[in-house]
Amino acid sequence: MPVDTTSFSQHLISATHNINDPHVTLSTAEITPNAPVVSTITKTRLHGGRQEGVDLVEVNNGAINIRVIPTRGMSILDVTTANLRLGWNSPVDEIVHPAWVNQQNRGRLGWLEAFNEYFVRCGLEWFGPPCEDDHHHAKAEVPAGPVSLHGKIANLPASELQVIVERAKPYNIILRSVVKENQLFGPKFELHTDLVTRPGTNSFQVIDTIRNVGAQTEEFALLYHLNHGSPLLQQGAKLVAPVRHLAPINDQSSSAYIHQYNMYGPPTKGFAEKVFISTLRADRNKKTRVLLKNKARNRGVSIRWNVEKLPCFTIWKNTAAEADGYVTGLEPGTSFPFPRPVERAAKRIPKIKPKQSIQMPLEFTLHTTKADVKAAENAIFKLMKGKYTRLDTQPGGFDPS
Amino acid sequence: MPVDTTSFSQHLISATHNINDPHVTLSTAEITPNAPVVSTITKTRLHGGRQEGVDLVEVNNGAINIRVIPTRGMSILDVTTANLRLGWNSPVDEIVHPAWVNQQNRGRLGWLEAFNEYFVRCGLEWFGPPCEDDHHHAKAEVPAGPVSLHGKIANLPASELQVIVERAKPYNIILRSVVKENQLFGPKFELHTDLVTRPGTNSFQVIDTIRNVGAQTEEFALLYHLNHGSPLLQQGAKLVAPVRHLAPINDQSSSAYIHQYNMYGPPTKGFAEKVFISTLRADRNKKTRVLLKNKARNRGVSIRWNVEKLPCFTIWKNTAAEADGYVTGLEPGTSFPFPRPVERAAKRIPKIKPKQSIQMPLEFTLHTTKADVKAAENAIFKLMKGKYTRLDTQPGGFDPS
Amino acid sequence: MPVDTTSFSQHLISATHNINDPHVTLSTAEITPNAPVVSTITKTRLHGGRQEGVDLVEVNNGAINIRVIPTRGMSILDVTTANLRLGWNSPVDEIVHPAWVNQQNRGRLGWLEAFNEYFVRCGLEWFGPPCEDDHHHAKAEVPAGPVSLHGKIANLPASELQVIVERAKPYNIILRSVVKENQLFGPKFELHTDLVTRPGTNSFQVIDTIRNVGAQTEEFALLYHLNHGSPLLQQGAKLVAPVRHLAPINDQSSSAYIHQYNMYGPPTKGFAEKVFISTLRADRNKKTRVLLKNKARNRGVSIRWNVEKLPCFTIWKNTAAEADGYVTGLEPGTSFPFPRPVERAAKRIPKIKPKQSIQMPLEFTLHTTKADVKAAENAIFKLMKGKYTRLDTQPGGFDPS
Fold first, then answer.
1. To which H or E segment does residue B371 belong?
2. Least CB-CB distance to B216: which of A48, A50, A269?
3. Which of A61, B329, C43, C86 sits 20 to 30 Å CA-CA off B200?
4. B124 and B349 in contact (C-beta within 8 Å)?
5. Does C48 sit within 8 Å of A20, measured CB to CB?
6. Cα–Cα distances in Å, from A110 out to A223, A376, B128, C4?
């Protein structure tokens, strides 16, 4: 996002300037003493176990606290306010340094060894299950070959990270970062991110811009794996989404479960994950919105994005026992989490030209009253404009034809 | 083990409390000035080569010095006293940080890139050779798939490490640690260890407790790879063990070698390892004991454990040239180091229930006189109670039927 | 090389002495105040992105500046003088810590994730493309199995690194290092390197000595991947080499391109790499020499080595778009970059005996005038002694017969 040149700015991490101070504390009480709400930004180096050497940045805007992990591709561990937490309780209870993660483990499912964030990106070259992919669009480059689960970006570190604070209203706080996924004979991507929050509000934006700094047009892939656990997720919690067309991803998720796609059960030992894929309706500006609300309808989170940039919405229901990972993923993506050759055949893999930048903003709002939850729900109903949802009871509705 | 609440206690490493001081020195001259023997506990951060960032903890109880590697799953590098060292001279002459180890290398034998400890655990999900294992006992979890040599635990770091010193007799020194092996859709294990030694004695205990913090019953596996080299291992060194039944693990180790299973030759260039698997006799409390003694019978180590917890004893004879790794492994385990599907068919893979803790203590005593060696040997003879040993000259005696 | 015992010497890194100071600055203004030219040696710890924790050593001899990466096997990032730089602009724009590199990625092409140096060694157990290699020469060791691109040495750190400065003429500056590639049941290699430069000169030597510290004779492999980019590499740049016999490595590089093997085109989007393999003529002392010169013939580099030690010379032409990596590799090696079984069948894989040391020095000279370039060219013409070059238009001329 455009930033006033008079804004406060400080590098927390910079490969360019050789900066990575273990501990930094900033307060807007000093930076913008006139702002009505005091915010703090802190950076901490973690120690012990697989956390050794991990950097953690916390942005507290006076209303919500956002914990960001530069060492893990600018994933967001969790977001908390007085009576609501966006996040989940993964069996992985440390913030794992990628040096401990071998994505080739367990038949290329090693990504799961560190998976515990609220907000984690899958991509940028590919996401989805391990598969063989011998195609490479660009000339004279090598194909991804044996693809590992969900790609590399979540296990790559921020090369650059800046704190920016606007010195005038609305006194926005911005974490501006760059994560690089590049190599010879492969994609050359930069992920530029502005994580923006206005002091005193219950909301934040994540504005990702993917840049292709290579010389050739490349395929890319981005899925936002947004993971919600207890206590927001509970028996009776419900997803509200303006679904145009929804289908089970496989037989395991089909007819017996499809009509409850948006309703959640209690933690259930040995629960086999159910996955539904969908397209959503949007407003004139192509913006859509989904809401996850608790049983009492007085807590919730709504997430907004552009369906032209992120046309595919995946719902991952993994209501396993709490100790095994009770969680639902709400996952806007550039495509669905089928194997890449399937997505390619379905023409769902987007491309990015040399020097092109593609921006895909996400907005998050935490709701902590019945009125707020209801207002969000009404906004979503409005997107439906009274139209019907196509619900497929069997897989296949999104298969390449 | 239960510890008096008045004991001295200090965190050396803690992911919970964000602690990992590079250098710590503790002396019981200050902690327990009344104790008759002064012990020291030091923590050092290592630098250079593949040692960069490795933490090493030394416990010197006044009689023996134990070097423990928290960064490598609480493995024990070596144990030394005036004229005896438990350990070996691996071709790997650095204490390798797991970040340099890729267990997927060399057909999933990458574990060997760092292998040089006296005491190293194999497990906790599996041990044994690389193989395909598509079984997973727990519901809705993913199988280990292509299994790498000897599992992950030796290349995972301690999340917690405390020094505890008893303030009253016997003034025990305890290293209390937690190593975690967990992930979504896989096992959720914690390894709680008390390494205990009494000041001024030639002995120590390693009391491991495996906890299943997941919600489902899981298979687990633990092999203690206890590796003895020069000078205790030498031509004429001998293993004394109360063998009930012993067999070669494969043709390479069969009839020509079986009758020398407990006798050691000199370092031999190009020696092809021989492996024998066995069950041992025990006393009424299910405790067994083995002894390795030198040629002069004035140096030795004896190791005790519970055969109900660790029913399978593997003898690894690798009397290669000194420069290539002259070593014998004495290996109590929950099963034998066959491929997992073989062990499963033989019903030798134990399970651990949700919230269950399984404790498996090992006791080590260093013997430095003929009398001590002889006493240990006599104790082992007593376990045999004059009964015969079944010696199979060909593999197959422990095969699943 | 032999060093006077009165020389200045300081450890920058030592696993033996537990040394790795993040920042060191040395100046010969203090060490050898009588030397006519002031040189500096600095060590810096890098931060941010995948550079976190990387050590970089710069040797500035008053005429050229050499940047060496101990953390990456003593690779040389680049060498610069006033108007010439040896190096290239890889899409990988950070100096990547090996902890971020998974050589098993992308069908075992993960080596490319960090590849951006001017001087990078491939080896020491193998180099070349991923392949299956089930042979192992030594007894009772395990074969390399599924071989990854270009071996491990570039992603292993220096265990020892010393600065040595001669206190008398010619006041040579020497970086003396040891990198270890070893494991149980595999090769036990040490790479001892003296990087030597004389203050005020435009040249430096890299004197590698491979030592086999194991007990058995082993195969080894070493390829110097010397990578030249803009601006020395440009349309009209030319390689001058005393070629005895040259052939394309595959059909992609054959007849249409063979006659331009030594001429370079401009950066070309989607250029498919061309690779030529060759043997070179040498002088009576078995020394050969190649020259890469720019279009104006006033800049160049010449490289000398012993053809008995490094009999195979590979030319890698990858004149892709600048953003994708515009580069040519001039690659003296112990063999050609065919799959190992091919090289073995061709009897091109050398062996090293127990305790044997094999030294293979390389000399680099930067040329920055027309006269210098011309002199180097003439020296190479002299090696040809008017003899013909055998140019094969099709692959196969070096195939095992």
1. helix B370-384
2. A269
3. B329
4. no
5. yes
6. 18, 37, 20, 52
pLDDT at A294: 98
Q: Is the pLDDT of residue B137 over 80?
A: no
Nearest to B179 by CA among B155, B158, B207: B158
- Model pTM above 0.90: yes
Q: How confident is the model at residue B218 (pLDDT cuts 50, 70, 90)?
A: very high
Contact B231, B278 (CB under 8 A): no
pLDDT score recorded for residue A386: 85
- % of chain A residues with pLDDT over 70: 100
DSSP structural state of residue A240: E
Question: In the prediction, which pLDDT does A385 show?
Answer: 85
Whether C120 and C154 have beta carbons less than 8 Å apart is answered as yes
Contact B324 C214 (CB under 8 A): yes
Phi, psi of B370 (to 5 degrees): -60, -40
Domains of chain B listed by start with CATH number = 1-220 (2.70.98.10), 236-333+369-401 (no CATH)
Amino acid making up residue B322? E
Q: Which residue has the tokens 């996850």?
A: A292
CB-neighbour burial class of residue C266 (10 A; exposed 0-12, middle 13-18, buried 19+): middle
Q: pLDDT band for position B1 (50/70/90)?
A: confident
Which residue of C15, C144, C146 is in closest CB contact with B94?
C15
Beta-strand relationship, A326-333 and A351-352: unpaired
- Give per-residue pLDDT as tens, B88-122: 999 999 999 999 999 999 999 999 999 999 999 99
Does the pLDDT at position C31 exceed 80? yes
**What is the predicted pLDDT for the residue at B252?**
86
Q: Is the peptide bond before C124 cis (omega within 30 degrees of 0)?
A: yes
Q: Check if the beta carbon of residue A77 is closer than 8 Å to that of residue A68.
A: yes
Distances (CA, A) of A145 to A176, A313, B180, B336, C98: 33, 26, 32, 36, 21
Specify the pairing of strand C243-248 against strand C390-391: parallel
A297 pLDDT band (50/70/90 cuts)? Answer: very high
Q: Please give the ipTM for the structure prediction.
A: 0.96
A50 with B157: Cβ contact below 8 A: yes
pLDDT at A183: 97
Please judge whether B321 and C146 are an interchain contact, meaning their C-beta atoms are less than 8 angstroms apart.
Answer: no
Cα separation, B91 vs C187, whole angstroms: 9
DSSP code for C399? S
Q: Give how far Cα C108 sits from Cα of A125, B99, C222, C261, Å.
A: 17, 18, 19, 29
Would strands C287-293 and C351-352 be described as parallel, antiparallel, or unpaired? unpaired
From chain C, the residues in CB contact with A354 under 8 A are 323
**Residue B253 to residue B273: CA distance in whole angstroms:** 8
> At residue C38, what are phi and psi to the nearest 5 degrees?
-90, 130
Q: How confident is the model at residue B135 (pLDDT cuts 50, 70, 90)?
A: confident
Summarised one tens digit per residue, pLDDT across range C118-160 is 999 999 999 999 999 988 778 988 888 899 999 999 999 999 9
Please tell me if residue A272 touches chain B, with a CB cutoff of 8 Å: yes
Cβ count within 10 A of residue B388: 9
- Tell me how many degrees the CA angle A340-A346-A347 measures, rounded to the nearest 5: 90
Instruction: State which residue of chain A sits closest to C105, comparing Cα positions.
Output: A104
Helices (H), A168-316: 255-258
Q: Is the pLDDT of residue A401 over 80?
A: no
Q: How confident is the model at residue C108 (pLDDT cuts 50, 70, 90)?
A: very high
Contact B106 C20 (CB under 8 A): no
C59 touches B: beta carbon within 8 Å = no
Nearest CA in chain A to C323: A214
Distances (CA, A) of A234 to A299, A319, B75, B219: 11, 9, 42, 29
Q: Does C272 touch chain A (CB under 8 A)?
A: yes
Asked if B22 reaches chain C (Cβ–Cβ under 8 Å), the answer is no
